[in-house]
Amino acid sequence: xxxxxxxxxxxxxxxxxxxxxxxxxxxxxxxxxxxxxxxxxxxxxxxxxxxxxxxxxxxxxxxxxxxxxxxxxxxxxxxxxxxxxxxxxxxxxxxxxxxxxxxxxxxxxxxxxxxxxxxxxxxxxxxxxxxxxxxxx
Length: 137
Description:
By secondary structure, this protein is α+β, with helices and mostly antiparallel strands. It is about 35% helix and about 20% strand. The strands form two sheets. A four-stranded antiparallel β-sheet has the order 3-4-5-6, with helices on one face. Strands 1-2 form a two-stranded antiparallel sheet. The longest helix is centred in the N-terminal third of the chain and has 18 residues, at about 1-20.
């Protein structure tokens, strides 16, 4: 009888796992809001004290980067630049010199580049909607 009980318990666990919806990770991105990481390839970066994680959507050339726990986004970042960033001897220096820029003059700043749309998304805040509309003009 113990075998039958174990089989029923295992069947119940399997049924529960199958019925439980799979959810993907969502992160809060500064100046954007919530972004679902489902289409992204994410990499933790333990060799950097400044950069904890980078996520890249190659199809959209869109990068999310966690800097000391806060996510930022960069638009129209080519795959070659992303690959060079990941393999740079100093990711922090590469980021500061080649990606970040200052103000809105950064080479991949989302205020001056196309921001990809991911659906479904949470309703934007008034400020993020205003930024988005400015970028579309």
